[in-house]
């Protein structure tokens, strides 16, 4: 296994551009970005992790869509400031459902995306909880829960679970489920468990 100490990458402004290529066909799939942590996670897991400049966080490719990319080879360029990775992809590389993000010639219209990113809110919520753990905010309910300790957090998850199964009517079920998911994410973060860990377990069971 290649270690971070075995090479030198110039992370200009903290990130480097990454050209992603299909290992089997040679097709260019997308242009992404990595910071040092994203590269380390990619090398550790064997799956592509990128740094999102819009969301300002690391994400695993396919964490919402399921269209993961297994990394086969990683190359660095002659100036040590960009990467080329060759992947075996599980599903389309583009959020539009196209094989590649470069699916249209210059001037041709875009197509609407067909991937449901509604679960992205859970990842943003997880990020927020972890930020509150690192940098507490006065008056934050999340910080109140964290400060109350593991036993109380577990109790709240149990209470919310009971309220959810006792809820009557669609709107109430939606409301109580949102409460349950929030408290569950706090519980996971408090115990150093990520949604990625849970998704990995679900993926393992589906095989």
What does it look like?
The protein has 207 residues and is an alpha+beta fold. It has six helices and six strands, in the order ββαββββααααα. The strands form two sheets. The protein has a four-stranded mixed beta sheet, covered by helices on one side. It has a two-stranded antiparallel sheet with strand order 3-4. A hairpin with a 5-residue loop joins strand 1 and strand 2. It starts with 15 loop residues before the first strand and ends with a helix. The model has no long low-confidence stretch (mean pLDDT 89).
The CATH superfamily of the largest domain is identified as MazG-like
Radius of gyration: 20 Å
What is the H/E string? EEHEEEEHHHHH
What is the overall shape? globular
Number of helices: 6
Largest sheet: 4 strands, mixed
CATH-defined topology of the largest domain: Helix Hairpins
End-to-end separation? 26 Å
Give the second-level CATH assignment, the architecture of the largest domain: Orthogonal Bundle
Overall number of domains: 2
Beta-strand content bin: 15-25%
Unreliable spans are: none
Strand order of the largest sheet: 2-1-6-5
CATH class designation of the largest domain: Mainly Alpha
Content-based structural category: alpha+beta
Mean pLDDT: 89
Protein name: Histidine biosynthesis bifunctional protein HisIE
Subcellular location: Cytoplasm
GO molecular function: ATP binding; phosphoribosyl-AMP cyclohydrolase activity; phosphoribosyl-ATP diphosphatase activity
Keywords: Amino-acid biosynthesis, ATP-binding, Cytoplasm, Histidine biosynthesis, Hydrolase, Multifunctional enzyme, Nucleotide-binding
């Amino acid at each position: 296994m290649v270690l971070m100490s075995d090479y030198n990458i110039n992370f200009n402004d903290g990130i480097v551009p990454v050209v992603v290529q299909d290992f089997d066909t040679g097709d260019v799939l997308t242009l992404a970005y990595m910071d040092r942590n994203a590269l380390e996670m990619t090398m550790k897991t064997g799956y592509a992790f990128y740094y999102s400049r819009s969301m300002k966080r690391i994400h695993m490719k396919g964490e919402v869509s399921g269209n993961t990319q297994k990394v086969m080879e990683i190359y660095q360029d002659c100036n040590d400031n960009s990467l080329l990775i060759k992947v075996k992809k599980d599903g389309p590389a583009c959020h539009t459902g196209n094989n590649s993000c470069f699916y249209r010639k210059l001037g041709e219209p875009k197509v609407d995306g067909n991937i449901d990113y509604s679960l992205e809110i859970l990842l943003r919520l997880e990020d927020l909880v972890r930020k509150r753990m690192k940098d507490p905010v006065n008056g934050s309910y999340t910080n109140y829960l964290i400060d109350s300790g593991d036993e109380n957090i577990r109790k709240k998850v149990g209470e919310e679970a009971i309220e959810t199964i006792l809820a009557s009517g669609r709107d109430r079920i939606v409301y109580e489920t949102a409460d349950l998911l929030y408290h569950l994410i706090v519980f996971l973060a408090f115990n150093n468990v990520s949604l990625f860990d849970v998704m990995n377990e679900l993926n393992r069971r589906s095989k």
